[in-house]
Amino acid sequence: MAGKPTLHYFNGRGRMECIRWLLAAAGVEFEEKFIEKPEDLDKLKNDGSLMFQQVPMVEIDGMKLVQTRAILNYIATKYNLYGKDMKERALIDMYSEGVADLGEMIMHFPLCPPAEKDAKLTLIREKTTNRYLPAFENVLKSHGQDYLVGNKLSRADIHLVELLYYVEELDPSLLANFPLLKALKARVSSLPAVKKFLQPGSQRKPPTDEKKIEEARKVFKF
């Protein structure tokens, strides 16, 4: 029996949080080894654990996987969250990439210089309500099913619901005009494995604040 996957990253959201969400939604228990100082990262680099000298890195099934999309693809395939055929997988990829585009903007928002924050937030709000959320609402409307692809839970649903939580953190009113997305969020959030992950005390990470940014700066030297 293989051991639990081990996640190597700092103790914050960043690029690992979508991996935590996907594992949790699949009902997979995982361990975390937090990178708390530059020496921790140097050790992983020096012992050959990081192919491209960067994290996230996940130890799973005897492999040390890096690159977020590669890790997500492997987990989704292993736990049957990646559609039943090539066409479904193509749609799941397309939707997941759209989620990642908006997610990237939101992830970088806390790093924004104070003078640029208002303009950045306005841009995120505009892209959220005029581009990304209408697109996903229309997918659900077009087929009337419970999930984005094949009427079955996939990584695309999990990534999208994670994103909807971040959108709500920014401004709860942004979801107001998207009833099908709100229903999807409620549906996925009530799945036992996801419900457990959303409880206080789980491995889900809180919103990024100044303290977390400073911790990350010390480790990653940016």
Automatic annotation (TrEMBL):
GO terms for biological process: glutathione metabolic process; xenobiotic metabolic process. InterPro entries: Glutathione-S-Trfase_C-like (IPR010987), Glutathione-S-Trfase_C_sf (IPR036282), Glutathione_S-Trfase (IPR040079), Glutathione_S-Trfase_N (IPR004045), GST_alpha (IPR003080), GST_C (IPR004046), GST_superfamily (IPR050213), Thioredoxin-like_sf (IPR036249). It catalyses: RX + glutathione = an S-substituted glutathione + a halide anion + H(+). Coiled coil: none annotated. GO terms for cellular component: cytosol; extracellular exosome. Pfam families: GST_C, GST_N. The keyword Secreted does not apply. Its EC number is 2.5.1.18. It is an enzyme of class 2 (transferase). One of its GO terms (molecular function) is glutathione transferase activity. Keywords: Transferase. Residues 3-83 form the GST N-terminal domain. Residues 85-208 form the GST C-terminal domain. Gene3D superfamilies: 1.20.1050.10, Glutaredoxin. Belongs to the GST superfamily. Alpha family. This is Glutathione S-transferase. The gene is LOC113882304.
